[in-house]
Amino acid sequence: MYFISTMILLNNETQLLLQIIQMNGECTVPIVELHVIEGYSPKEKQRLGAALTEAVRFVVPAAAELVTVLIHDLPAQDYYRGGTTRSPAPARSDPAQLVRDFLTAMEARDLARAQSMLGEGFMMAFPGSGPMTSLQELINWAKPRYNHVAKTYQGFEAMQGLGDVAVVYCRGTLSGEWPDGSPFDGIRFIDRFEVMDGRITRQEVWNDIAELKARK
Asked: Rounded to the nearest 10 degrees, how much is the dihedral formed by the CA atoms of 135, 125, 133, 102?
């Protein structure tokens, strides 16, 4: 058995300690200790614990149930940097949930709600569409292609991208109705979103609609 211990400074107010215990060369038991200024909600800590678990497993060959995450709250009056107490940075919103809410609003044609989730410089691209910068552009582009469409989701994956951008992928199948009234379903799709400061700034879509239409 041996131990590896590393201290990582995440930002000025957050420190993370990673310990890896190797047992007989067979079982790796990572222990992550995170020190934060108190103020984060239980739900935010749950997100943090899950994210740290997956981050460790991305590099360290350990089963999820062997990764231990310990989050220590520090009262603000007990934390000083530069001789001054500090406040915790607000938690970022869940980018995957934002994308879910956006897609739900779009499917319901609640364009005002969907628009409120878009950031400055928003751009989207669908197969064969070219860049579009407004939701109305999308509605106009889709109108001659199908009467309506719905998504069945098989999964959402969120990750940190470059800089402050979060990247969210969602995948599943499409169902709906062609302009002639005939139904379609089981069409595969993948959407890629970029999220910054709690707003969607980019959406890119891939699907098999063109291939299926070519068979009709």
From this structure: 40
Residue 6's DSSP bridge partners are 18
- As given in the structure block, the two tokens for residue 154 are 């098989």
pLDDT of 6? 46
Segment 41-55, tens digit of pLDDT = 999 999 999 999 998
Tell me the pairing of strands 68-74 and 27-37: parallel
Secondary structure, 3-state, the chain: CEEEEEEEEEECCEEEEEEEEEECCCEEEEEEEEEEECCCCHHHHHHHHHHHHHHHHHHCCCCHHHCEEEEEEECHHHCEECCEECCCCCCCCCHHHHHHHHHHHHHCCCHHHHHCCEEEEEEEEECCCEEECCHHHHHHHHCCCCCEEEEEEEEEEEEECCCCCEEEEEEEEEEEECCCCCEEEEEEEEEEEEEECCEEEEEEEEECHHHHHHHC
